[in-house]
Amino acid sequence: MGVYVIIGICIILFFIIISCIKIVPQAQEFVVERFGSYYESWTTGIHFLVPFADRIAKKISIKEQVVDFKPQPVITKDNVTMQIDTVVFFQVTDAKQFAYGVEKPMAAIENLTATTLRNIIGELELDATLTSRDFINTKITAKLDEATDRWGIKVNRVELKNILPPREIQDAMEKQMKAERERREKILQAEGEKKSAVLVAEGEKDSQILRAEAEKQAQILKAQAEKEAMILRADAAREQKILEATGEARAIELVQQALADSIVKLNDASPSEKVIALKSLEAFAKAADGRATKIIIPSEIQGIAGLAAGIKSVVDIDDKKQNG
């Protein structure tokens, strides 16, 4: 009987010893109390709990945590009530202060966030509230971090998740946004029409300039062509006159040469006046066969021509008598 009791006691002691061996996981801390008072904080590793004296009061995660708080009603400086919900990123830096500093730390952070947010938003108007998220986030973070330091909590960041103004304000904002967009559209359309008109005017200007340049070049070319035509006509007239003068001079030379030859021959033959007249006519005929466009008949030739006509009539009378 005594042996079984001893064995039972040994088994109980074994389980008690086993239960007193504690392993603290990574990123956690255990707050240990001895006889109801804070004893120490255990970090990662194996620890031994004194039976019946020590107990683990709180297991605390030292990882960064995220808490999404429900929307809080706040009033702006211009008396607009809106709903704002926040997201808080925090981390426990002191397990003892976190365990004993404040009752219900999450509720304390939520209430502190709400009151701080109301204080900050109360100094801003609606438009500033909607456009100053970074400013609000930075200010809330600084105030919360300062207030929660004695609780062993480090507030790393606070973000405004949603800002919901009243429905009538939302409708007014939508109308304002619509009007602003319509105004921008009209401005863009007017600027586009202006640019189009400017481009059309510049195109017409360039077209008129090009047409004027073309007309100018055409007039210049026409004037140059008329000038060259006049020069060519003047050259042709001058050459024609030169040819006529050359022909006249050549004709005179031919007549003079023919007369001179006839005179020489007649002098050699001692001809009568009738023969001289006929020779003169023959010389005149040779002169007329030349290329001259004009034939100048000397007065002597005209007299000879009359004489030749008289001789021809005498010869005709003699022929009639002989035939009769």
The helix tally amounts to: 8
Q: Secondary-structure element sequence?
A: HEEEEEEEEHHHHEHHH
- Structural class by helix and strand composition: alpha+beta
Percent helix, as a range, is 55-70%
Please provide the count of β strands. Answer: 9
The largest sheet is: 4 strands, antiparallel
Characterize the structure shown:
- The chain has eight helices and nine strands.
- It is of the alpha+beta class and 324 residues long.
- The strands form three sheets. Strands 6, 7, 8 and 9 form a four-stranded antiparallel beta sheet that branches.
- The longest helix is centred in the C-terminal third of the chain and has 103 residues, at 167-269.
- It is rod-shaped.
- The termini are far apart.
Structural key phrases:
324 residues, four-stranded antiparallel β-sheet, three-stranded antiparallel β-sheet, 9 strands, 64% helix, 19% strand, rod-shaped
Overview in brief:
The protein has helices spanning 2-20, 95-100, 105-121, 126-131, 133-148, 167-269, 273-288, 299-323; strands spanning 21-24, 28-34, 37-42, 45-48, 54-61, 65-68, 72-75, 81-92, 153-164.
Task: Set down the secondary structure blueprint.
Layout: H1 2-20, E1 21-24, E2 28-34, E3 37-42, E4 45-48, E5 54-61, E6 65-68, E7 72-75, E8 81-92, H2 95-100, H3 105-121, H4 126-131, H5 133-148, E9 153-164, H6 167-269, H7 273-288, H8 299-323
Antiparallel strand pairs: 1-4, 2-3, 2-5, 6-8, 7-8, 8-9
